[in-house]
Structures are given as C-alpha cells and as structure tokens.
Amino acid sequence: MSDIDIKKINSTIIITLTREKVLNALNLNMVREIFKNIKNWDNDKDISGVIIKGSGDKSFCAGGDIVSVYHAKSETQSILSDTFFREEYILNLAISNFSKPWISLLNGIAMGGGLGLSMHGKYRIVNNKTITAMPETAIGLFPDVGGGYFLSKMGELGLFLALTGRVMDGLDSMYSGIGTHYIENENINHIYEKIINKSNYDYIFIEQLLNANSKKLLEKDSLLYKELENIKKHFCRTNLVEIFDSLKNDNSEWTKKTLSVLSKKSPTSMSVAIKQLGLAKNITLKECLAMEFRICQAMMAKHDFYEGVRANLVDKDRNPKWHPESIFEVTEEIINSHFHSLNEKELFSDE
Fold this sequence. Notes:
Blueprint: E1 4-9, E2 12-17, H1 28-43, E3 49-54, E4 59-61, H2 66-72, H3 80-97, E5 102-105, E6 109-111, H4 113-118, E7 123-126, E8 131-133, H5 147-152, H6 156-164, H7 170-176, E9 181-182, H8 185-196, H9 203-213, H10 223-234, H11 240-250, H12 253-262, H13 267-280, H14 285-300, H15 304-314, H16 332-336
Parallel strand pairs: 2-3, 3-5, 4-6, 5-7, 6-8, 7-9
Antiparallel strand pairs: 1-2
Helix pairs in contact: 1-3, 3-14, 6-13, 8-9, 11-12, 13-14
C-alpha cells in the first residue's frame, strides 16, 4: 500500500492517508500527491468537493514526518529540512484557496501537520474520538503550518494552546474553533454516503447536510471554557517571563500544573511562538506562512529542534537538554534571529 490513496466517486475526491502504523504522519510524498492534483480538482466542473480522512480508527494525521527531517541532518547532501516544510506550507495555502468544499474527517488524532491539512479547509468534522493539539514547543519547534494564523484568531486561548501544546478532545476542539461540526461516529458513514452518492453538489448542500447532523453543544461542556478565566488572566502577557511570573504569583493548583507543563517545553520555541502569534494577528495566511518558513529554517539550523525530536520521538528518554536552558536566557536577539529574511530562499518569490 502506498502512503496515500486518492480516488473519485461520482463528484467527490476522497483522499485517504494510509500510513496507519505511524498514525498517518504526513511525509513529502503525501504532500506532493495532494498538491499536484489540487488545482485540477478546483478547475474540473465534474468535481464538487474533497473529503480527506485517515486510514484506521486511531488517527487522521498525527503531524508531519519530522523524524525523517531529523535523520536527514546527518546526510550532507540532504535538503529535506527545506523541501519538506516548503512544499507542506505551499500545500496549506493551496487548501485555503480551494474554491470547493474541503471536508476533513478528524477521525482520531489530528495534530500539527494534520491540522495544516484540515484547518485551512472549510469543514472539520470532530466527535468523541477526536484528539487535537499543536504540540510543537515540546520538540523545539513552533506551531507552524499556518498555526500562527488560526491560533492568533483565538486570542489568549490560542497563545495558551501554542505554548502548552494542550491536547483537546472533540468538545474542546469545537469550543476552540478547530472543529466546525460535531457529528457522532455512528453518523459519519451516513454523511459520507450522502456526499459520495451525489452526482454533483455545492456548498449549500454540504452546509445543510452537516448542520442537520451536527450535535448542538453547550460551551460549558468544554474543559477549556471552564479554564478560560485563568487562561485570559495569565496568557494576556507579551513575553514568556511575564507569563511565568504571572503564573507563579497566583500559586493555585491550575497555575502550578500549567507551570509544570511549560517547564518541559523549549524556552526558545515558546518565546518565538509568542512573537509569531503577535505578528500573525494582522497579516494574511500567505504572509503568515512566509514568516513561519523563516522561523522554521532558522530552527533547522539551531539546536533545540534536533534535541527535542531526539528526546521525544527517537530515543524517547523525554529529557531534552534545551539551549538556552532557562527562559531568562532567551534574549530579544535570539528571538529576532528567527524572523530574518531568507532572501532568494524565501517561501514565495514575491515576498
């Protein structure tokens, strides 16, 4: 079986990510297979929309295949650390520009690159099996794939999710805006069959179908809603030291738990993410992706990304040694070094 299966049924393109053993992690081949077709799907009048899902019942897509990027560091001729992220981000933009319904079935884990495949499309179906997160600060990276763009729209909640990598269930995913419709697992097949059996359709049909089958949820059912007062109080700060000080001064069970979570993340990654989300509030997705590519390429040339992947995904000792080690050692100069122009290596030639 290849990494990805793409087929057309009536007027629907069905993309199935088929790397089930690695939770359908997104690799370069999968990115290329989607990208090489997406413009044709958009221009083909016989295609009404796209459904994208993961094989198996555990995962939609657990993220990008960054372990391959990690191993490529030892190959002197490898340009994977440029190519993978460059093509992934360009695909993210192409999905956002797709003019037809892009329906993501978040059937299980959807993290990092998996959210890049879904968040920029119109519809994201979640339920009690869904698990979402942007966990990149734990591996010395940052919430990329347009994460700055969609997280910055959530205010303090977005910054909290970016820094902590908080894992969300279906209810939290709906509350945060990651999900657009909450449809019980037993009803997914009904929705799927309705769509693929139709010879042609438009946004109105999809909207009505999803709305009619979506469960009405109460905000108070979300754990994030219950924590929002604390999140707003402490994550309204403009730098990492202020956030840590605010949490320490409160000395509640919630702040102690949050500090414990943050203490395991890369100080540099968290500091960069704060600036990233601040800048992303006022720019387009394309501009955000261009910025994120600069950040990404800076991190590919530094220590924390490789150490974070080693500790959490390769050796799995869960004990990364960050450089700098302390939040107080992350200077403005270090933060700003992630945002410099890449000149001829920019993501988009018009930047």
